[in-house]
Amino acid sequence: EVQLLESGGGLVQPGGSLRLSCAASGFTFSKYAMSWVRQAPGKGLEWVSAISGSGGGTYYADSVQGRFTISRDNSKNTLYLQMNSLRAEDTAVYFCAKSGSGWFLFDYWGQGTQVTVSS
Amino acid sequence: DIQMTQSPSSLSASVGDRVTITCRASQGIRNDLGWYQQKPGKAPKRLIYAASTLQSGVPSRFSGSGSGTEFTLTISSLQPEDFATYYCLQHNSYPPTFGQGTKVEI
């Protein structure tokens, strides 16, 4: 059974940093691209960033380019999102999502972790 | 970026009703579209991929159709557990983009 468990969310001041983690199990982690998708309070879904199975390729939404860094440790079956220079508009639940075939064909999602940016 | 326009944004329905949700893409995306169901406080769950292929384990009352720019998700007979918000996602063109969601309420 595929399981994705996010952690690392919390309350941070504007301009601060946070690192999210997503622990994966139930599949061969290194074979699949992974993404982070966020959902602001009462809003829809927004794709944030993606990384290839090997970790050699990454993509970012314009809204986070230059501030967020996605990475993965295939030996630990863990996905990360380093978030710097956080803004109020980054407040959201952050989900990790596994891709099936291709980069953005999300087939399984974690339960999410809340990030709140506020002074 | 490809814009995905979902309609309606919300609807009221009763158990047993047939419900149809539409997603329109701002340009052609072949059949590179998925449908997701999200319940409050939960992760999205994939229902349909490749526009019309039912995800394993999803009840057959859910179906998808369409290609190019217009797509539909149909629930043939609404059940109590189907009250949720539904999103479409295009993955034909980078960046992937979601519709704004359709909330199905009693």
Can you describe this structure?
The complex is a heterodimer of chains A (119) and B (106). The mean pLDDT of chain A is 96. Chain A has no helices and eleven strands. The termini of chain A are far apart. Chain A is globular. By secondary structure, chain A is an all-beta fold. In chain A, strand 9 and strand 10 form a beta hairpin. In chain A, strands 2, 4, 5, 6, 9, 10 and 11 form a seven-stranded mixed β-sheet that branches. Chain A has a four-stranded antiparallel β-sheet with strand order 1-3-8-7, with no helix packed on it. Chain B has 106 residues and is mostly beta strands. Chain B contains no helices and eleven strands. In chain B, strands 2, 4, 5, 6, 9, 10 and 11 form a seven-stranded mixed β-sheet that branches. In chain B, strand 5 (45-49) and strand 6 (53-54) form a beta hairpin. Chain B starts with a strand and ends with a strand. Classes of the chains: A mainly beta (119), B mainly beta (106). The interface between A and B is medium-sized, with 19 and 21 residues.
Compact description:
The complex is a heterodimer of chains A (119) and B (106). With 119 residues, chain A is an all-beta fold. Chain A contains no helices and 11 strands.
Key descriptive features of the protein:
heterodimer; A: 119 residues; seven-stranded mixed beta sheet; four-stranded antiparallel beta sheet; B: 106 residues; mainly beta; 11 strands
List the helices and strands and how they pair.
The complex is a heterodimer of chains A (119) and B (106).
Chain A: E1 3-7, E2 10-12, E3 18-25, E4 34-39, E5 45-51, E6 58-60, E7 68-73, E8 78-83, E9 92-99, E10 106-109, E11 113-117
Parallel strand pairs in A: 2-11
Antiparallel strand pairs in A: 1-3, 3-8, 4-5, 4-9, 5-6, 7-8, 9-10, 9-11
Chain B: E1 4-7, E2 10-12, E3 19-25, E4 33-38, E5 45-49, E6 53-54, E7 62-67, E8 70-75, E9 85-90, E10 97-98, E11 102-105
Parallel strand pairs in B: 2-11
Antiparallel strand pairs in B: 1-3, 3-8, 4-5, 4-9, 5-6, 7-8, 9-10, 9-11
